Amino acid sequence: MKYLSKFDQLNENVAQSKALLKKLNIEEVDGDYLKIREMIKGNEGYAFWFTKLRFQDDISMDELKNVWDIIKDKNGLIRYFSKPVVKLETLEDFLDEAEKAKIKRSVKRVINQFPSSQKKFFDLKNQNDIDLLKELSKNKSLPALIKKISSFKDKPSFIKAANRLLTTDLDNSFHKLLSHVEKTGASVKVEDEENNIIICEVDYPQLKNLGGDTSCLQFCN
What's the rounded Cα separation, in Å, for the pair 212 and 200? Predict the structure, then answer.
């Protein structure tokens, strides 16, 4: 069995990219090929894959640069791909994997905040569980749910609370109230969206405008 070191494999990948150019009657000094080599410098394992996309599939350099930005994503998006990037046949396959990976990553970020007892409620192969966790990942009030998550002893009680959070227009209510307070000219002292609290200093006309009877207006869930 022939053993290839990582260095040999990289060289072989570059050689494959050059072989493809030769097959397509394209010079190795072609401007776009040189741009690809410069773009992936230090990551030659992608040489053939990008060369194929550009010269065989006719994908523009601008699109390839966008693909490279996704690959280099500092948050490691490609770690959530179901297969190595170079095993993906087309640009469409790559973009589809990227979208799925974003969902996987957001779901993981949510469930990683759960204690082990509550993590057991969820099966990441179950689409309903994935959909719920995905929606929770987009909700700004998720930290409030996380704070009391240990109180949920079974999955139905957690799902009930999660759905209540998702169906309550709490985020919008907070901003509407904050906007109303600001329009009165009141001085906002505390603006805590996570805990849904606004504390402001007002004069008497502002107080009446806000419908209060003290010098402090507090809005909370």
Answer: 11
Residue 210, helix vs strand vs coil: coil
3-state secondary structure of 190: strand
Which residue carries 């990582």 as its tokens? 6
Read off the pLDDT band of 173 (50, 70, 90). Answer: low
Tell me how far apart the alpha carbons of residues 162 and 135 are, in angstroms, rounded to a whole number.
9
161/107 Cα distance (integer angstroms): 18
3-state secondary structure of 199: strand
The residue count for the chain: 221
State the pTM of this model.
0.65
H/E stretch holding 192: strand 187-192
Radius of gyration of the chain from its Cα atoms, rounded to whole angstroms: 27
pLDDT higher than threshold 80 for residue 46: yes
Query: Structure tokens of 42?
Result: 């230090």
| C-alpha of 111 from chain center | 14
How many CB atoms are located within 10 Å of the residue 21 CB? 17
Provide the Cα torsion 104, 149, 144, 76; round to 10°: -20
Contact in structure between 80 and 42 (CB atoms under 8 Å): no
